[in-house]
């Protein structure tokens, strides 16, 4: 808590005068209770539950507490039983001094709803102090010519008790010269006066000694004594005379020690020693003697210690002037203490909450009381908090204030507030007190997890290892603690045929996604699913995001040769006339690749050949063509091995074997298969020239006959005959046929062939090639539809 001079900011202000301001949260009664002083700690005062008309246990449920005005805990509340007990042994004289009645004011505070009850406790006096005279001996100098009936005022005894327990009577020891007369004052106190009954004679008795007794009214009565020594003086016929009977003055409470307060003055008409006047306090209490001092010669009154307006606001005491002959006179001095702004406002916290749940408007955070011991403008106060905070002060009764939230707080915007309550008085100079409160805003689950993206795209290369980490999803949650702890899950797929549980899994704690099994691009190129994120608040909040998984192709499929077939059946033989020009199309190797992209880009090259340099293969379309003119020296039987390679990494390949027969013309009657050619060549070597000679004579006749017979036979057996090079049905899987534009076959080639009649070995001749252009996506279908070779007209590939 800080106290310093005030520099007033333009902030929200609540002006509260220490006069009553009738603003209250609830109707509050006024309870009056009493207790006898000096009772032991824990003594019963009252049952508050019964007195307030509340059920047993209600005080504890409503957080009832007792707050005293001076922030001292004189009373203790047992909230379970409702009993109000003393918290210490109370001494009325220490608490209130001479003030009567002795009242202790306190408040009873309750929550739910908030209420303040004002109450007061009267501390009843007991006779626990005896009267005490300040001086054990008093000296009176009385002239021998003093008239009978003259009264001499004596110093009164002091008794801290009040009322009936205070001093009620004075007595004097038995004697023949004096008796005691009791006199009252305007302050409600009694004074003893010694009254002369018989004239004194100094020559007979110079001194008298009497005992003065003070009695209080307690039961049993207490008393105190003092000795009065009377000195009989010679005649002094002029007593001192004060210039004023009453001296009034003012002294600021911040006057320094040693300051002159007032000066009294008395004159004496006598001369010599009888005219010498001395000044003193008459019948002064201990607080007067410790606060002021008087110069016995000059009559000046000085300050011995600092004044405190809040403790004593005025002093009224008697001053005695005595001459050298023993005659005296008295006057009254009234000193009024002027208040100065020397007390900063006090802020007394009655209840305080350092934590509040967010989204809760109108919550009571603190209840406190403002107190300023100064008076007037010095005691008026202003109370406020910072303008930029969502809090306000609500005044209540008896200088109480309530600090409340102005609206619902949002922890995500601000989790902690430093609230400074400033109380300033209106004195000069202004003093202020600051009290800081640190408020923590506790979290409420009001924020659902939020994904950083509405959809995620993950890439997985096929043939991955099981349990491969493929990616993560990462939502954020603006809450804290348990409310921000997120659990991840896979939501049911929208496609009921997608086996999501066997494809991926998610780590419920961190959102990592794993592929459960090896993926095959050729079977599944992509799939998508939804991921849910649920926090652990109550109630739980959740959100979801779409995850799309794209399977990347790997080069895991080798090229597959569609034509010529490589299934171990009788190989197909291509016929090439020896008169073919360079670039003559012999055949075309057709292959496909089950992969995609560059993994399906195929290239062709001639790996082996019987006659290197005779044939060539076009790298991009697999066409086999002659590279030069054929000669008689070229072997009639040619074997070619073509390598088909994809563009993957690492590349995969396949080979196709081709058999080519070089013929003089397509009209030769018999062409042996490559397997029988070596044995037959030696047997026919002697008749070669004969056959050539006969052929040259009758070639025209034989050509006509052969053509006629061949045409007739082909037409009759077209439905029943199957070519030696037919493609078996069901050989190629469906997914390998549909090359989707990635294969290399962009033309379909059709050959018209005819079987030779009566041939046991199934020789055939290609009459002419017919080229038909097809789009890529029709190639596979054409191959499948025309997989059966027709004996007379040919096949498509």
Describe this entry's structure for a reader.
The chain has 797 residues and is mostly beta strands. It has six domains: 32-124, Cadherins (Immunoglobulin-like, Sandwich), CATH 2.60.40.60; 132-233, Sandwich (Immunoglobulin-like), CATH 2.60.40.60; 241-338, Cadherins (Immunoglobulin-like); 346-442, Immunoglobulin-like (Sandwich), CATH 2.60.40; 450-552, Sandwich (Immunoglobulin-like); 560-663, Sandwich (Immunoglobulin-like), CATH 2.60.40. It has nine helices and 53 strands. The strands form 16 sheets. Strands 1, 2, 27, 29, 32 and 33 form a six-stranded mixed sheet that branches. A four-stranded mixed sheet has the order 3-9-8-5, with no helix packed on it. The radius of gyration is 64 Å and the shape is rod-shaped. The relative contact order is 0.07. Residues 1-28, 667-684 and 719-797 have low confidence and may be disordered. It is a single-pass type I membrane protein. Residues 1-26 form the signal peptide.
